[in-house]
Here is the input.
Amino acid sequence: MNFNRWKFPILCAAVLAVMAALYLANAIVRHDYYDEGVYLRDAELVAAGLQPYRDFVLLHPPVGVKLWAVLLRLGAAAETVKKINLLFSGALVVLVMTLVRRLGGPLWSSAFSGILLAANVHFWLFSRFIHLELLLSFFLLCSATLFLLGKGKVSAVGAGVFAALAIGTKFTAIFLIVPLAALLIVRRGDRRRLYLAAGAGLVVLLVVLSDLRFPEVRRLLIDSQFSRPSGLPGSRIGLLYGIFLQDPLFWLVAAAAPLILLAARGQDQDLRRPAAVIIGAGILATVLSAVVPRNFHDYYIFFTLPFLAAGIGLCAASFPAARRVTLAVSAMALIWIGLWRFVLPDDWSDPPVISALRAGTGTVFVENPMLARLAGREPCPGYYFSDPYSLGLLGVSSERLWEDLGRCDEVLLDRKSVASEVVVVPYEIRSRLRQEGELIYRDDRYRLYRLK
Here is the structure.
């Protein structure tokens, strides 16, 4: 057997095998993340018929939560929803490889793009969790695939539908949709853009804007863009503006990826080389953000990763030595996804805090309702992100909060939330709990109090 001929396919097969093993591990082992409880709680409220969905205040339109609400109404458990997320992440890898291959990239560049995405630490982190980034990425890539590979009106309408679903999942989708839409507007002779706009408009009217008929949603949406209720330094920056300021160079680089995909469609070929230069120059600047997470919460970049992987794969196909470089990078990717500590399961057993919660009885206040759910405990009502008390939006006093907490049997505090902008329980309440509550469990992160 000629090993030189088969070494790249063998390497690709090895990478896919490691990916499959890690997918199975992530599917079997439970991983918990703070925001999961927030999203599931919102989905439960919507599934129970409580309207409107008010989480526009945190930059989260209703599509993702309403989709999860449908699954919950059909009887799906939280763990089932988490496993469905794994299917979305696998579909993203397949879509990226298909897109690159169908746009004219050779088989090796298609495999390279898939490996580049699958080896990304952020991709693995958020394939574990119930989070909006996976849905956002899936809808965006479906839109790009239909528009770039399709030729008729139906595919254009479908692309518009998925683009609107992406915006209806999270507003940050505009950072990729706007530059691509602007390019389509200035181009001539492509009438499919009208059908794309029609499909997008239909979804926006039926899904996204449906909740804006409620005055309180409109008020919260407007307020959130100009004032953060946390009161922390920098809280007066609007959310969309603040997200762009977080890493403007990355957004410029990410916006070039759709241009490469459009250029590879057979038109505007002169765009491919400049876009390749832009991405190449930006790789060094963005590698820390895109590969090594400097902060676990830097998940805003997640939805750009499939486009970057596809764009880089197509660019690599344009250079003579790309196959050798791809082979080396793929080998490093194989080692990376096999050894990176975040990829492997954190704990094959229940965390101690879950055992402590299971040992108690009655209702428990938790800042993350996921913990109560996993422990089989009934969480106290209210004080979640979509509820009116959350984040002090209605100015609930500490005395009122303390009075309501007194109706709970136990209170679990998360020290991690104190270090973030989202503090559900004010500091004065935490201090009062230490004085008047009985501490029954503590670790490096959690404190569990029984109210006397």
Remarks:
- The CA atoms of residues 11 and 21 lie 15 Å apart.
- The chain has 21 helices and five strands.
- The first strand starts at residue 363 and ends at 366.
